[in-house]
Predict the 3D structure of the following.
Amino acid sequence: MSEQLQAQILAHLKSAKYRPQRERGLARELELHADDQYHAFKDALRDLMDGGRVVFGARGAVMLPEEKSASGLITGTYRHNKRGFGFVVPTDPSGHADLFIPEGSNCGAITGDIVRAKIVNRDLRDGKEMFSGKITEVVQRTQKKFVGTLAKQHGQWLVLPDGNALTEPILAPDAASRHLKVGTKVVIELTTYPGESDERPAGVITEVLGEAGEKDVDLKSVIVQFNLPGPFSEEVKDQARSAIDSFDPEVERTRRLDLTDQMICTIDPDDAKDYDDAISLRRLDNGNWELGVHIADVSFFVPQGTALDLEARERGNSCYFPGYVIPMLPEILSNGVCSLQENVPRLCKSAFITYDEDARPIGTKFANTIIRSAKRLRYREAQAILDRAEVIPHPQGDKKISDYEPAVMGLLHQMNDLSRRLQKRRQAAGQIVLELPETELVLDEQGKVIDAVAEDQSFTHTLIEMFMVEANEAVARLLDSLQVPFLRRTHPEPGPESSAKLRQFIQVAGFRMAKDIDRKAIQALLASVKGKPESFTINLAVLKSLTRAEYSPQIVGHYALASEHYGHFTSPIRRYADLTIHRLLDVYFAAREKPEHSGGKHRRSKIVLDDCPTHDELVELGKHLSFTERRGDDAERELRQVKLLELLKNHVGDEFSGVVTSITNFGLFIQLQTYLIDGLIRYENLLGEWWDVDDRAGVVRGKRSGKQIHIGDQVKVIIAKVDPARRELDLSISQLLGRGGHGNAAVHQTDKPKKKPKSEKHAPRGGATRRNQRSKRRGR
């Protein structure tokens, strides 16, 4: 059987129609994706790989060995590491794995540049083929502007760039004539790149952001660094106003399913302004449930092809920062007529999903609707109602249960009941839920971070997420049944290399994992570490082993959600991908109204959707939206890190609890448990000891003392140095606590700061202005 499967796989790989893809996609093409067939398929594929007859390219794409670049030339995106080396990520994922570029071989390339590289070395390491090379040409510069701090050295004006994309100082000769002070944050545009001549990189100052530490300077810096969009043009804002002016809810009421008399509510973070989803729920006479997920009908106000639409498409998504949002749509839409505010008529696209007693979907229908939200609830407020708390937190003052209408409380308890059944069903199907808590930054009136507190963990976050996932899946099932290409949210299963690395890491951390890593094995692993100090480290390792979800029309499925068909439908205010789905629903509604589909005694013919985007158009759009999503996430992560580092500058010398999250050949990474940020301890600064490093086993051993430090060990650390501009946090260990966290002997620390350590402090909850991360991740 195995030989037959191997022959079948090889024949398919050799066929002209085959386009390299990951294991699951290949199995689907061969119709070997059912559970009983897939295991045999994987065994056959593994045998072919062990025999060198197939190889895995970038992102785990399966291909024949001869398909690798015969010339040894690779075109891709360069990613630079601050330690000098880097990687080229191939533009064509089927062409090659990421190519390692040693220090001094990058031809002056900067992170993000499109480059051409040549393979110069092929080695076998741990039985695997490893490639290294050098960049021969910078094809396209993608970043010209950099943010940095103005400095003066040996009579020359320089800009010391923030971050790690470019680590060399930039000459700024025009600074002398601008009467600027040393320490000012500026934007500099390069005129000479590194590697173009024997001279240092140079540029012209194009914008002065202000003194380091001033209000919004960090925010402005990140906006420039990631090339994020600025204000909307007057044309775009005028079109938004025109769309609002032409909106007449009474006219639309006659064209839509009127739900304004139904009990519908929203649940969002305290500081949310754009409410794009609302929920209704009722028990049917036969005991089944009918869930209504009502999503703001943004497509009504954003006609396709207009300047407003093109701007939203270019932005791709909204970007959320602590206390600030760069919206995808003008705020008169996103925070106004498109927001499902309490007690006002709003247009929606609604999904009605019928469930049986075990929360299995047994029927779905869709409609253009008009609703009136009866109640705007907040996550903690809704949770307190479910918990029947004596005091209900509310921004305008604490409330009591008696202050809420019985209908609102009844709806909320029904939502709680159904969501828990949905959660149980989805977990049984293999849905992977990672516990990666985040901190909410607490800002003062000047926008400065004064503390960070653990994010709200109320179940009401999960409650809403369950409903959003169900609605997204329902729409994807509909569009797939109509056999039209649409922008799916794809999440491939991990490749063999990622799974192997995860298994090794888990073993290093002292846990066991099944030989075949599937969703059930990952679920069992996560359950085994739940509530333990190592939980965050293990959850993070699982996250890193998973491929990043993207937008694509390819039928790949969503691995983490255990979903065969999945798309984004529930957040059109802040994601353009959702808007494309809404427009397809409009085409579906129009086709459904045609005479041949209007019902009656005769059997209806299959609905055909016309004027839909082509597969190739969606491929290109998916690439763009995946890029803007990554850009926004990276920018938010960067600003959060900068603000936390600014906060920690006030805690140099203070002691915190931490966990060893990574062991490298140059030092240990420790995560501060209070702020969930990683700091570095270099070996030369670690306990005045010489260390043997076994990064594969995840342990370092002191040569003189015999002390051992493992991944997952708990420690006490002291903040030694903070450099926000370089995004660096240096720590020193004051006490090793080990796996159990019960050590009691402080260790001698040769580089301990002179400042007397203070006890770890926790600020009271409240005052956080950052939009809750879970609400942003609704629907995965």
Observations:
- The first helix runs from residue 2 to 14.
- The domain at 2-64 is CATH 1.10.10 (Arc Repressor Mutant, subunit A).
- The chain has six domains: 2-64, 68-140, 145-212, 234-490+552-639+772-776, 496-546, 654-738.
- Residues 66-70, 600-604, 742-779 have pLDDT under 50 and may be disordered.
